[in-house]
Amino acid sequence: MLVPIRLLIADNHPPMREGLSALLEKQPDFQVVALAKNGPEAIAQYQQHRPDILLMDIRMPEMEGTDIVVTLRNQFPQARIIILTIHDGDEDIYQALRAGACGYLLKHVPCQELFEAIRRVHAGQKYVMSSVAQKLTERFSDSELTDREMEVLQLMVQGKSNRTISEELCIVEGTVKFHVRNILEKLGASDRTQAVTIALKRGLARL
């Protein structure tokens, strides 16, 4: 007798949750046991149903996707979580996999590849679609920002001036300018606006 792979779907968009559930239920070896619309609900549903696979967006209301992964992996070390999202920033991908996600797929993934990814992760493998793997490779080929540069970048994204950044971080304005120059160089940006755009696209900072 075929034992189905039990799935929990967590996504804040009802059409996506329901459409994905209907699609997966058509496969004889899949069974959707629960749906969740936000982070706390995803954790509660996981605790209640103990699914084989959690299929989850990286951006969730009330709780970040990576925090959900960390929370569940701490409680259930064998938890198998696949990220299914539209967000393909290299930092999002890196942080999700670092947190313990077993797979990372984009929502335009072909149905058959999605099914195959679920089956592979259930079998104990990891699955990252090729375009996502390429983004991850590019991330490691670039110069990484230091922790202080990340702090400065986040304040840049918030529209803070060098003077305001220096006051908030308790460093002199000249040091802020030094960090900004390094950030522009490492991101390949010609000015602050382009640096902010690149940072948001890659998931290095949030609005």
TrEMBL record:
Identify the InterPro entries for this entry. Answer: CheY-like_superfamily, NreC/VraR/RcsB-like_REC, Sig_transdc_resp-reg_C-effctor, Sig_transdc_resp-reg_receiver, Tscrpt_reg_LuxR_C, WalR-like
Arranged from A to Z, the UniProt key words for this protein are: DNA-binding, Phosphoprotein
Residues forming the Response regulatory domain are 6-122
Q: Which residues cross the membrane?
A: none
Name the CDD domains for this protein. LuxR_C_like (cd06170), REC_NarL-like (cd17535)
Q: HTH luxR-type domain location, by residue? A: 138-203
Top-level taxon of origin: Bacteria
- Give the sites modified to 4-aspartylphosphate: 57
Q: State the Gene Ontology BP annotations.
A: phosphorelay signal transduction system; regulation of DNA-templated transcription
Q: Which GO terms describe its molecular function?
A: DNA binding
Q: Which PANTHER family match?
A: TWO-COMPONENT RESPONSE REGULATOR
Report what the protein is called: Response regulator transcription factor
